ACY2 Aspartoacylase (Chordeiles acutipennis), 138 residues
Amino acid sequence: GVEVGPQPHGVLRADTLDKMRKIVKHGLDFVQLFNAGREFPPCTIEVFKIMEKVDYPRNKNDEVIAIIHPKLQDQDWQPLNNGDPLFLTLDGEVIAYKGDCTVYPTFINEAAYYEKKQAFVKTVKIKLTAKHIRSSVL
């Protein structure tokens, strides 16, 4: 499967549809070239590894007491460093990120995740290395 977004539920966006078409085309091109016997050299790629789901701050009654800070909103996949603002309480207090490394939040303030008690997901950037590959069926 391919998930391209974010995109609000029930909304069709031309730019998102175009991204989805491009990634599916690249996947199909790879399969065709692989099946034709093309050898692919080793490569390294940066990816984001999910580390932790982060909930909204809550009170003792399990009620949300803060919202996503405006500086974090719409910043999916952007670096978040120690001291950067995360949440804004209903009283106007800023809750900052406290971490020992840079993380890359995603799925920030997504409506589909409210019921799952998820404000965003913390990811870290890592490098994956793939060996060369070639179809053995020729």
Remarks:
- Strands lie at 43-54, 66-68, 85-89, 94-96, 120-130.
- Residues 42 and 131 are 4 Å apart (CA to CA).
- Helices lie at 14-35.
- The chain is about 15% helix and 25% strand.
